[in-house]
Amino acid sequence: MLPPPPPPALDSRQVDKDKDSGKQKKEASYDPSEVGSDRGVNAFVYHCLGLTRATDYETITNLSLQFTGTKSNDKAELVIGRTARAIKWAKASDGSDGIVSTYNLYRLGTFGSAGSNGEVPLVDLTTSNFASGIGVLAGFEWGRTRAVPLTKWRTDIHDGIAKARQECIAAHAVIDPLTDPNATSDQPPLLAANPLPSCEGKALATWMSDSKRANQYWNDIVAPLWGYKKDPEIFMGVEGRYAFQDLSYYPVKDPKTNTVIATTWPAAVEIHPEPYSVKLYGGFNWQVGSEKHRMATLGLTGSLSYRREVDFIDGTAGKTICMPAATGANFEICETDKRLAPPYSTTGFVGGVALNLQFKRFWYLPPIALSPRLTYAVDTKRFGYEVPVFLLTDDNGKLNSGFKFTCRLKGETPEGFELKRSCNINLFIGGSFGIGQTP
């Protein structure tokens, strides 16, 4: 399998400058220290780190590929993502020449629901809820990081390479008989006469490109240049979902009144609804405090969706039915997860807003993040809100666990189906928090 094409290299030879009545072009050379003089980050990755094939990378994330899987409320989702990144010129906040990284994220996946109880709690009204079945999703997102001054960008590169040179010199400073194949077993360790030639120019590039070290220096030097470790300053995207369902119900109750209307036990009715949703979203992120002394990060996201909703009225799904095993039998056979009325179906617009706030670790207190979300469905005149609080981190220090309060208020479909209020609070483990999360 061939590796995916790399993001376009930075061409720093041309910087457009408005001056007087015309545009003049200024040379701005990019020289990543002595380790190669090729222009562009890709040249550095290829010629200095030797990462030219997909198998050279330690993780698929470094290849801008991502596989994610989530499961909650009897729903499962598997998504494959591909990110294309680029670096462009921009003005930094201080007015100097700067660098921004942009990305195009392409997502394709599948999702499904077991529908074990037929009443899956739904707070995010912007996507279609469905009791059981499988669906597909596709999405695209564009984002841009905050501009970094060109001087800092170059300094970070040089600092990373200087650190690599120091590590190279330390590794070549001692001739150790335990690692030197030309030494005898009784020879003591010796100080090298001059380790510098082994850690300059192409020799340093060869040392950095060793399979044991190349990915370390990719993460230390290259990943920050592409914006891997930064939250986007601005982002926008679109996502579509389409589901295929096989449902059945027994027409026992009137879904509008939730009263029994059948006089004898009816046969099951099979239906095959296909709910869908299309969502447009976008948002901004801000830092509270300076880059060096950042106190918190604030994200604000809005969305507008159009979706078709197919769901069962509360009180008509997830029921247990018991009937005599046979005529004259003194015991019954019971079946669970049965639906006693047909579902309702409605289409319409849904608006949503999300506020994502993350505080850094302070004193002995752990990092904490809040992610309240509010949605409103126009067709059912219904609000839904969710307030996750992230308190625990994983092995990499990323917030992923906490507690969540969710609620969806009363509503009514255009056909007159009453939707009841439903709220709960629960703990979650293994979730993920991101400043750019969408409602």
Order of helices and strands: EEHEEEEEHEEHHEEEEEEEEEEEEEEEEE
Treating each run of at least 4 consecutive H or I residues as one helix, how many helices? 4
Q: Based on helices, strands and strand pairing, what is the structural class?
A: mainly beta
Spatial shape: elongated
Radius of gyration: 29 Å
Approximate strand percentage: 35-45%
Low-pLDDT sequence parts? 1-39, 116-123
Mean pLDDT over the full residue set: 75
Q: What percent of the residues sit in helical stretches (DSSP H or I)?
A: 10-25%
Head-to-tail CA distance between termini: 36 Å
How many extended strands?
A: 26
Biggest sheet statistics: 14 strands, antiparallel
Topology:
Blueprint: E1 15-19, E2 22-26, H1 41-48, E3 65-72, E4 75-91, E5 97-113, E6 133-144, E7 148-149, H2 150-172, E8 174-175, E9 190-191, H3 201-208, H4 214-226, E10 234-244, E11 247-249, E12 253-254, E13 259-260, E14 269-271, E15 276-289, E16 294-311, E17 319-324, E18 332-338, E19 344-359, E20 368-370, E21 373-377, E22 382-393, E23 399-408, E24 411-412, E25 418-419, E26 422-429
List key phrases describing it.
439 residues, mainly beta, 14-stranded antiparallel β-sheet, two-stranded antiparallel sheet, 12% helix
